[in-house]
Design goal:
By secondary structure, the chain is of the alpha/beta class. The chain has 10 helices and 13 strands. Belongs to the HMBS family.
Length: 307
Amino acid sequence: MKPYRIGTRGSPLALAQAHETRERLMAAHDLPESAFEIVVLSTKGDRITDRPLAEIGGKGLFTEELEEQLSDGRLDLAVHSSKDMPTALPEGLGIVTYLEREDPRDAYISSAAPRLEDLPQKAVVGSSSLRRQALIRRLRPDISVITFRGLVDTRLRKLADGEVHATMLAFAGLKRLGKSEVVTNLMDPESFPPAPGQGAICIEARLDDERIAELLAPIDHADTHAALNCERGFLGALDGSCRTPIAGHATLENGQVSFYGMILTPDGTTFHDIRVQGPAADAAQLGADAGAEVRARAGSKFFESWS
Ligand SMILES: NCc1[nH]cc(CCC(=O)O)c1CC(=O)O
């Protein structure tokens, strides 16, 4: 039989995620490694590394090339970081499966101070995420945040070279790369809420492909799936303002989803947050309603005050 073709980006983190997916599929179906072929593709987001993602703009910077090959059948599935997934996907494609989420928290990394709060006045922190920049400024308005893109290793080298006092990365990514020992402190998800989708691997496929739906069903993690439905519902309701720093984190307990979401101005001076709870079956609607509510509360001036 022809191997299943698994598409991925070529970054070390993306490859780790594709390998994890393959291992779970091998274990779930008692299949040999040769039943899967990992196909590595380069995306626009991989090729442009000198500018902040928000500036390059456009949706699907890390997904377009993979989706093209999914759509025309060259790939059977594509493995992504949920955080990098646009809310609207190409016709005929969908996120079919979420693997059990890793720790969604942000990691603070620095040899200058044990916590963000302890950094010296006017310290320099490297991050290119709009959300992290805004959250850092909210907690520490004196800090200057500089754009800091590239692979995890590149960022850690810049930190070691003294270009910045500290940087922030997703703890999940560091764990998957076997680098959790570099972490100085983990950010509290209340005062520094993670990005929607952070820490969760998702698998995209053709929606009409029943064979792939059956293949993926046993590795789907129901609680992660519900949490992501909620977080992506929130994000979707706020789309169209893709330069807005957005944070959102859902957790599941006994079939109930608890969600905390926030939007901020890039300078961190103004923010609107919301906390909601409801049954897991309504997670997507819950998130969407929360998004609509903060959007209304913030008012259109909030979104027009920059960009
Ligand atoms: N586009 C960057 C990106 N996308 C997903 C992760 C981390 C892994 C995850 O959130 O699952 C990262 C790097 C980072 O934020 O440190």
